[in-house]
Write a structure and sequence with these properties.
0% strand, single chain, 311 residues, globular, mainly alpha
Amino acid sequence: MSADRDTYRVGGSLAETSRATGFAIVTLTYVVAGLAAAALVAALRAGHPLLLTLYGDILATLVVFAASVAVANASVYDPYWSVAPPVIVIAWVVWRTGGDLADVTVRQVAVLLLVLAWSIRLTANWARSWPGLRHEDWRYVRLREQRPARVPWWLINLTGIQLMPTLVVFAGLLAVWPAVTVTGRSFGLLDVAAVAVTAGAVTVETVADRQLRRFAADPGNRGRIIDSGLWRYSRHPNYFGEVLLWWGLWLFGVAAAPGWWWTIVGPITMVLLFVFVSVPMMERRSEARRPGYAQHRQRVPALFPRPPRAG
């Protein structure tokens, strides 16, 4: 057993600080991360904006990583998934329009509003449930406890918990680049489909999370399996909504510039992440905590909704 496994204490010396203090530290971290990214992009200047964005995104992630090490809590990174995308999209729109609102297109407005709606909802969902620096996501705790003794925790934190999701989200945002910077094609039927898919995705996530909160708030449901509402048709409808969102954003990109079809790597990567990483981790935990979950798996699909099987 490694030394850091023995001595690691979530939150470190700040573990007993208030929830408000924790939020203040996270907020300050993200402000510093954003300023560092902006300074790097301004210093480099030359180069394709996509590459400059990637460099800034990685630097911001490294700043958040450093803060997570300083406070001994990898969950400092958790809101990055939903905070970074709207900042990036706004930066791209400003770059394309030069900050002139008169040049903003319908497609740019649609993409930006939908990304903001998704971001605000998901970030608020995190903020509502985060107790403070004393709490670290159970998945990170499990990764730390089950990792090989020779692998340092900071390396898993940096690569698996922080850099990997940053790169996955950036891949998902590739299609947004043409959607907000290529303006030669007018808003059309494919854009309407993109709005429907993306707005539908945000709605699915919102409803699924609300149904889960209501279910979990009832003491009588302790240890039980939610199988009503959207959860009747998918074991993870909130994850389905998240995957669907990135397909909707990809449709915007193709509507603006069909030649950017290859950005489909973004939503495909999202599907792979949830199918092979996120869902299996949740499934193992649910099977260990909820009797009858194995039978539930036989009836209800994991991710993509369909009517449940009888039984």
